[in-house]
UniProtKB/TrEMBL annotation:
Protein keywords: Amino-acid transport, Signal, Transport
Protein name, per record: Leucine-binding protein domain-containing protein
Family the entry assigns: Belongs to the leucine-binding protein family.
Signal peptide: none
Keyword Secreted annotated: no
Keyword Cell wall biogenesis/degradation in annotation: no
PANTHER family xref list: BLR6548 PROTEIN (PTHR47235)
Organism lineage: Bacteria, Bacillati, Bacillota, Negativicutes, Acetonemataceae
Entry's Gene Ontology BP terms: amino acid transport
Leucine-binding protein domain: residues covered: 42-387
UniProt xrefs under InterPro entries: Leu-bd, Leu_Ile_Val-bd, Peripla_BP_I
Amino acid sequence: MKLSKLTRLTAWLALFVFVGVLVAGCGGGAPKKTVPGVTDTSIKIGSFMALSGPVAAVGVPVKKGMEAYIKYVNEQGGVHGRKIELLIEDDQFNPANALAAVKKLVEQDKVFAISPSLGTPGVLATLDYLTDKSVPFVYPMTGASQPAYPLRKNTFTVQPNYNDEGRILTQYAADKMGAKKVAVLWQNSDIGKQGLEGVKAQLDKANVTLVYDGAHDVKDVDFSTHILKAKAAGADTVVLYTVVGQCAGILKEAQKQGYNANFLTTYTNADLNIIKLAGDAANGLLLGGWVPIADPNEPAFKKFTEIYQKYNNTTEMPSGFATAGFIAGEILVEGLKRAGKDIDRDGLIKALESFKDFNGILANGITYTADSHSGVKYLLLIKVENGKFDMVSKDRFVLKQ
């Protein structure tokens, strides 16, 4: 039986429709891009820091600051309709634990990026792995120079490095405090070694002499010998490159021995714990800093405190370490916003490289380019007076070449 032309045409149209439906059902057209950690409704971010052990006093506030900002953003709808899912691993300030945590976050949890991390040992242990995997690493919390120099495409630092800070502190001590003979008491780790290198690098330019340097272990509690030697060498200025507990111990020992030199220390110690631990021995201490000190009368600090207390369900005042965690959240979220809805890792990197003097609620003057992923290259100076932090000035101190 012959089919009419109309019948044959109808059959062909039906075939085309069927094939079209079949092809569509099999994923015809451009395949949707798969990006680790990203769905239509969420974006997964990993983080690692000490939440237990001797450095938990730093890690826990950092966590609270970061989480508060992320919860604040999520409550407003997230970023381009995606809620941020934050996965935080406890590395106990152990580099082996840090590397294991990062491998879990990247390979099992499939996070989109790492932000932030805490501490030089863990950061240095994970740098090469994250670079090899091309995972964006936003705000490794360390002043070590390795994350920023030489440039790593995936890594974006925020705070100044210890070497540059040591040089700025030395120059300031010479120019403003009349320093002639300097001693450096330093922790036997990257923070101490790089800070010491910075001080030494600026000696000739500052026209000062290094008369004593003494190393101590992170677990040391007796600093009497170091103070005796610095005092005997005639040091009028002592630069401390160590962490809060040891810094406080050194200040108390100096007070005990009646040693009235000028003491300066790294921004790592610009936290209220130094005053709590050292008591009145902290008075006169000059510290580096890279964000203005907390002023309850400043609108920005009020906003930060409001967010911190609301999302941590607390009335406690946030510490300097919580500030750092909060700033990490601000930088990450701004990068995600600029990267757009159709996001991938390269897009986040390019978005971060567009920062020029980015200011958030607390983030201040953050700048990145394709040639520099070091966000802050200046130092603010803070002094302890009558048991409180005071800004020496509002000037940004930069390295004198």
